[in-house]
Amino acid sequence: MPDDTNDDTVEDGAPNAEHEATIATLARELGDGAVVESGVLGGANPGVASLVVRVRPDAWARAAHVCRSTLGYDYLCFIAGIDWMPMPAADEDAEGDTSAPVQPKEMTFGVAGSEGRFQAFAHVESTRVPRSGLTLKTDVDEQDPHVQSWFATYPGADWHERECWEMYGFVFDGHPNLRHIYLPSNFEGHPLRKDFPLLAREVKPWPGLVNVEAMPGEAGDDEEEAAS
Amino acid sequence: MEIVSTTDTPAFQIDPSINSLLADSQMNVELDDGDMILNIGPQHPATHGTLRLVVRLDGERVISADPVIGYMHRGYEKLTEYRTYPQITTLINRIDWLSSFANEVPFIAAAERLMNIEATPRALYIRAILTELARISTFLLFLGEMGLQVGAITPAFYGFRDREYTLNLIEAVTGGRFHPNYNRIGGLKDDLPWGWIADCRSTMRKMLDSCDEFEDLVLGNPIFQQRTRGVGIIPPELGAAYGVSGSNLRASGVDWDLRRDGDKYLPYDDIEWKVWTHPDGDSFARYWVRLQETRESARMILQLLDQLPDGPIMAKVPRIIKVPEGEIWVNTENPLGEMGYYIVSKGATGPFRVKIRTASFSNVSILPWLLRGIFVPDVITVLASLYFILGDIDR
User: Which range among A46-60, B32-46, B56-70 shows the weakest confidence by mean pLDDT?
Assistant: First the structure.
């Protein structure tokens, strides 16, 4: 499809004609108001623009079906979750890690927006059309995180949804077999949520100061000599 | 290999902690129809790491198979949130450890695109050369190992010998045999060492010869053909719906290669090459496609070396890397299949969220479907021919 080699008329961050057609098909097939918002991936670089469509949670499974049957996206790339909450700040005088990159303190949402903290997103591609790809997003309720499963449309969703359930606690309705995939089955908590601390970094200063021994002739050495 | 017979089920109360482990593998201990549960792995040589496969057998035939993964889960998606962009390349080297260099490329390309930096042409060419070298070394291990799994020892020696040549080349440029950590945002760490191009040319000619050798030694072998033909057939539509990618999907006749069909990330358009497909979709086809791709990669490297442009290897990059706010998805054709990074940046020195899409995870997820109804010895053939790396499954 995109034989266009990027007509530079497209404004940065705006969907091009081909994107508009995809959005129109999705809106038509999914019914009233199911397509909430759309946007384009790629940041400052419009040459690699890729479409993002946010659909209403109750149209999530149907959207997968439309992608596969009508839009021709026969290949499931991944399904994942995201937690938009900023990481809780460590205390000023905490012993823990201070080298981690500092992220903005206020909650902002990415391309195509979000209602709340949690979102599920997925990427599908077509093996027949070069340079194709569509990212779908949907909001997930914070108190009652339920998402419709894609298992019936893309069987590959099985493992991706198990991983997402384990890492974010999203319950995929219609998934036959939601159980732990990476972690032991008695593991508690959802590690990729932002309020789940990375304990190794919390309890030990980084980088590994405790492992540093005093070199001969340094301060620590002199004290020992003085004592003896 | 541990054999658990259902007739030996203990009568006493099962400890809750063990019970949860049993639930993990979906073992049905109540079963009384004489089915046997066989644990393949987690330390079976055919699994290249620690994959456990719980298969339920009726005689020699597999009734159901359930892969149990996660023995090597290192939580890279969480760790990336605590690190800066340059630090993350060290982590992602360890995802697919056989082709580490190819892992770095999509991540660096994603960061570059978000920052709107373009790597210099020479850097892109060297990236392409090293990516193809990584592909050759990964596939040579496969070409040898696959012979080993069906009972032929010789190809393994050939494979390891030739792989050593390519690893030496990678080591000469990057300083690391397995974990090069050689890509930088905007270019590369260093230029090629003196005399390397001539070395690489002669090694690639040697590779072309050894591919012929493999073709004679393995593909023409009637025993190998009997073991692999018609075994583990992946239908193209189902493979795509499962997210199977790379050579595994091309062996099912799907003409799709991200080097040609994806966003341009390396200068593959500048050279003449061909995407190989095979219509059969069985284990033999997967071996055949990888063998052709090894040869094609060697040809590609020879062309890339001929066209290698002069110039700097680093673009102008700010001293402290801060990636502007935005989201991006970059996927590339790695030796094992499609690898991609979905990066969410909030303008800091490190990413807010990185979704790492690895090839083996999706390739292996088709196993429960693929292994149903086949014989136990064929399980090993199918596992070997799918060719996965555990670090690439578990991340």
Answer: B32-46
B124 touching A, CB under 8 A? no
The sign of the dihedral angle between the CA atoms of B177, B179, B182, B186 is: positive
Contact between A41 and B327 using a beta-carbon 8 Å cutoff: yes
- Give the angle B162-B172-B98 at the CA atoms, nearest 5°: 50
Closest partner residue to B350 (CB to CB) among A101, A110, A180 is A101
CB contact under 8 A, B361 and A181: no
What phi and psi, each to the nearest 5 degrees, are found at residue B183? -80, 140
B355 CB neighbours in chain A (<8 A) are 78, 80, 82
Summarised one tens digit per residue, pLDDT across range B274-288 is: 999 999 889 999 999
CB atoms within 10 A of CB B237: 14
C-beta atoms of B116 and A52 within 8 A: no
**Closest residue of B to A156, CA-based?**
B242
A203 touching B (Cβ < 8 Å): no
Tokens of A157: 């969703």
| Global confidence as pTM | 0.82
Instruction: Tell me, yes or no, if A2 comes closer than 8 A to chain B by beta carbon.
Output: no
Which has the minimum average pLDDT: A45-54, B237-246, B371-380?
A45-54
HSE toward the beta carbon, residue A226, CA cutoff 13 A: 7
The residue among A1, A3, A78 with the most chain B CBs within 10 A of its CB, best to mutate, is A78
Which chain B residues contact residue A103 at CB under 8 A?
346, 348, 350, 352
**DSSP characters for B242-256?**
HT--THHHHTTT---
For the record, the structure tokens of B326 come out as 């935005």
By Cβ distance, the residue of A102, A130, A192 closest to B78 is A192
Nearest CB partner across the interface for B240, out of A42, A74, A182? A74
Among B64, B68, B67, which Cα is nearest to B31's? Answer: B64
Cα gap A221→B353, rounded to integer Å: 45
The H or E element spanning position A187 is none
| Those residues with Cβ within 8 angstroms of residue A16's Cβ, 6 or more apart along the chain or in another chain | A7, A10, A49
Q: How far apart are CA A205 and CA A90, in angstroms?
A: 13
Residues of A whose CB is below 8 A from B242: 76, 154-156
Q: With a threshold of 0.95, tell me whether the complex ipTM lies above it.
A: no
DSSP B280: S
Quote the crossing angle between the two packed helices B376-386 and B121-149, to the nearest 10°.
170
Sheet holding B52-58, edge to edge: B2-5, B36-40, B52-58, B61-68
Q: For the stretch A193-210, what's the b/e string if a residue is b when 16 or more beta carbons lie within 10 angstroms of its beta carbon? A: bbeebbeebeeeeeeeee
Pairing of strands A146-148, A50-55: unpaired
> What's phi and psi for B239, nearest 5 deg?
-55, -45
Q: Taking 70 as the threshold, does the pLDDT of residue A191 lie above it?
A: yes
